[in-house]
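Board notes (copied after class):
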Amino acid sequence: MWLTYSVFAAIFFGLRGILYHWSSQKPLNRNLLLCGTFSMGAIVNGICALVFSSDWTIAALIGIQMGLFSFGANASMFKGFAVGKASLVAILTALPSVVVVIVAFGLWQEKLHAMQLIAFVVIIGGVLLVRLSNDISLRNLQGAQWGLLAMLLFAANDLSGKWSTLMEADIFPTMFFMFVTGTVCFGLWWLRDLQSEQGSRSLAVQSSGMAGGEVRVSQVSSIGAGKAAAYGAAWSGKRTYLVGLAVGITNAVGMMFILTAFDLGKAGLVSAVTALNVLIVLLYTRFVVKERFTPAEVTGISLAFAGILLMRLFGA
């Protein structure tokens, strides 16, 4: 059953990735979007915790740690995309399961037998082929430090999720604390953006008054003037937050499935299977955005599905 839950987690995280891809083309504040995303997760899990009379134990506070790791990972990933090569950052953020396998073995002696290890390598190889870019070289590693940090923090988030199941923390309270923590972090970052924007506008108005002229300050923060010009007027805060709430549904359900999978299976294998969410996004770009698959992508998809088949046959 752990494999089934892992595949469902990959599907919902893939849907989340599609919505992230779609929203990245819109003139909105990404921190406010993610604040809305985490807010919905807190709402859904808080309601589920009350409905199912979950136990609010000390172990559930591991969710706070998960929220901090998730915030740091997302922030690092977006920073890497902003200052470096997107392809390199994407490759690094596809590798947390490798870290998870190593650390899980060191902490909890989770060993993979030969066929599980082969399946793991095949899946990771497929994901890497999908994300591989031909223009990466040792002289072209901009943003590598942010991608590496994101990889480590994503791995830490997965390991924290596994730890919460070992501590027998109820899923819903744990995820409630995780999503509340993420909401607060991204909310504070958005407020900082807002204050910085207001300060820039005030300074511009003062400068305009001194010069006797008129100046207009963009209402868009975190997206840049070029994107605002390309995609139209900036989205309002209310609209951005509501879209974030919608995205949060896929994120919350995906987390439910992955924590359940961690409870039933080995952390490294669950993390590897969940990394297949990139294939869902790739299928979206092929059939909706109408982008063509490269030979490397076709090979990567084939390897990833072969790895899933091997995992299904020999994952016990």
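Comment from the instructor: The chain has 13 helices and no strands. Residues 9 and 69 are 19 Å apart (CA to CA).
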